[in-house]
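Known limitations

Files may contain more than one protein. Parsers should not assume a single record per file. Below, a two-record file is shown to illustrate correct handling: read the sequence, read the C-alpha cell line, then continue until end of file.
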Amino acid sequence: METNKNIQDVIPGVAITVVLAVIGVLLAPYIPGFNAVLIALVLGMILGNMTDWSKKFKKGMDFSSSKILELSIVLLAAGMSVDEIGDLGWQTIVIILLMVVGMLFATVALSKRINCPRSGGLLTGFGTTICGSSAIAAVAPSVAKDKHDIGISLAVVSLIGAIFMFVWPLINSLVDIDPQKMALLTGGTLHSVGNVAGAGYSISKDVGDMAVTIKMLRVALLAPAVLLFNTLTSETKPKSILDFFKLPTYLWAFIGMTILVAFVDIPKDILGGIEEGAKWLLAVAMAAIGFKTSFKTLYQSGKKVLMFGFIIYFIQVAIIILGILVLM
C-alpha cells in the first residue's frame, strides 16, 4: 500500500514534466538556437515561478530531476561514436586532448577565485569544455550543490554558444582562415553539436564535416573527462587508487555504455533510438529543474556565471589558437 501511495504521489509531477518535454521537442524545429532541452527548461522556469506546482507536486519533480536525469545520462552514451575521428590527424587530436585537460584544470582553479556560485562555474566550465547541456547533465548530480545552478549554467552555455555560432562565420568572412584551422576553432570551442553544425556548414561543407567530427571527439572524451573532473572537484581527495573509482552508480553505467558502444557492433537504428530517447528524458529532467529555478536567483547569480562563462570560453579559444600555432 505504501508503494502504491508513493507512486501516486510521483505521477502528477512526472506527467507535468513529460508534457513540457513534448512541447519542447515539438517547438525546437521552429525556434532557432533553442533545442528541446532548453525550451523545456525555460517552460519549467516560467510555470515554476507562476504557480506553486513545484511544492504541490514536489515528489514527482524530485524524481524527474534526479532519477530520470541519471537515466538520461546513461542512455546518452549511446551517441558516443568515435567513427572518423582517426582521420582528423594526430595534431588535431592532440590539440583537443590538451584543450580538454587544460580547460578542466582552469575551470576548477577559476571557480575558486572568481566571485560566482562555485557549482554554477564548475558546471558552466565543464559544459563549455565538452558538449554543453549533455556534459552539464553528466556531472550535475555530483557537482551541483543547488539545482538552481544547473538551470543557470545551461542558460549561460546556450547563450554563449548561440552568440559564437554567428561570430565565427563572421570572422571567417573578414579573415581568410585555412579550412582545417577554422574547423578546429568551431568544432573545438562551440558548445553543442547544433552550434558547431550551424557555424561550420555556413562557412563550407568541408569545414562543417571536419568541425562536426572534431566535436564528436570532444563528446567521446566525456567519460574520462567526468572521471578527472570528479576527482578535481571532490571535497575529499582520494587517499588511494580505489577512492578514485568511487563514483555514483549512474556514472559507472554511463562508462559501461560508452565501452559497449565502442567495442560492440550495435545496429545504428538501435543506437539512434536510444540516443533519441535519452534526449527526451533529458528534456523531462530539465523541465523539472526549471520548476526549481526562481527568476530572482537566476538574476542574482546568472550575471556572475555569465561572466565566468565568457572568461572560460576565451581561455578555451586561446588554448585552441596556441595549439594551432605550435602544431599546425
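...continuing to the second record:
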Amino acid sequence: MHQFLPYAWFGGRCVPFAEATLSVATHALHYGTGAFGGMRAIPSASDPDEILLFRADRHARRLSQSARLLLTELSEATILDAITAFLKANKPSTPVYLRPFVYTSDLGIAPRLHNIETDFLIYGLELGDYLSPEGVSCRISSWTRQEDRSLPLRGKISGAYITSSLAKTEAVKSGFDEALLLNSRGKVSEASGMNLFLVRDGVLITPGVDQDILEGITRASVLELARAMDIPVLERPVDKSELFIADEVFLSGTAAKVTPVRRVESTDLPSQRPVMERIRERLTAITEGRDPVYDHWVTRIRLDA
C-alpha cells in the first residue's frame, strides 16, 4: 500500500489528498496527453525543519519543456513555487517522492492539443528504495522503445509509458526484476523507467541522446560526476551483446537512484562494481547535503518559514 502525503496541489492550491479528484471524462485519462516529473525530497539530517530537493531547477525546467511539447505553458517558477507550498503543507519527516503532473483537463472527446484546457497538480508518497540496492535481474524486452519521430521523447509524456508498463510486466511475469528495451535500430536504449550505464575496461559507457532515451537528470548528474572524478566517459550506441561481457552494468533514475544490475537474461554479471560504487557514494553524499562542492545541486526548503 502506498502511503500518500496528506495534501496535494490541485486547482492552484493545497487540498486534502482525498479531495484532489478528476472527472472520468478527463481528456488526459483517455489520450495520455499529460507529462509528469519525479523528484525526491529528503529531510535534512541536521535540521528537522529543512527538506532537501536534488536538482529541483533541472526537474522544473524539464517539466516546463514537457508542457511546451503539449502546446501549453507552465513556467519553472510556477512549478517551484507550487512544490515549495506543497512541501510546507505536508511537512514530510521521511524521504518522499513527488509527482508533479501537467495534463489536459478538458472533458472533450476529440484527441487534440489545441483549444483545450490544461491544469497542473502535485501529489507525493513515502518512498524508500524503488529497486533493490543490492542489484536487479533484467531481461531484454520483446517491446521496442518508441522513436522520437513518432513521440516527443525529450519529455516525460504520460502516454509513452504504455511501452514501459508492458515491458516491466513482461519482465516480472517471466521471473526478472526489470526490463531493458532496444530501440528500432536494435541498439540498447534504456530500462522501463531508468537510464542504463555499463563499464568496460574502466570506461563508463551509456547510450547517447540519439538512441531514443529520456534525457534523465540523474543520468546527466552521473556523467558530470564521472568526468569530475576522472572516470573516462563515452556516450555512444550500445549493442545487446555488450551487456553480457561488461565489467559493470547499472541503472539510474530519480526513483531508482543508482542501482546495479546483477544479471542480464541468464548471464550473471561481476559482483564487484568499483566504478558504480564510487559514483553512487558521491551521489548519495550530494543528495543528503554532505558534499559542499555540489551544494548548488541541492535546494533547501524551510518547512517552518
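Parsers that stop after the first record will miss the second one. For reference, the second record is described as follows. Helices lie at 27-31, 56-69, 76-90, 161-173, 217-228, 240-245, 274-287.
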